[in-house]
Design goal:
Helix content is 56%, strand content 9%. It contains 5 helices and 2 strands; from the N terminus they run H-H-H-E-H-H-E. The protein has helices spanning 3-13, 29-35, 43-53, 62-71, 73-85, and strands spanning 57-60, 89-92. The longest helix has 13 residues, at 73-85. The chain is globular, with a radius of gyration of 12 Å.
Length: 93
Amino acid sequence: MSASHLLRVVGFANRLRADPLDGGHVITHDELLADLQDSKTDLARVVEAVIRDRVPYIVVPSAAVKAWERREPHHWAKVSAWLAAQNVVMVQV
């Protein structure tokens, strides 16, 4: 793992653990999946994979993260906060 990837991992792991858009409430995976039903991205698949596989980290292309941030920033913020609350680190490649 390169130094830049490690810095991204550490930065992500240190982000907020609760959804700042929801008053700091940590949402359940069911609430998150329900909220993602109208999403035009594959964020729900990411959440489902984390739930199914119970992994300590996920590897995601940085282009996907940029697209999520641009196309659906509210959903991305919720998924990002949920991943952090689950102690799942996201490694961007």
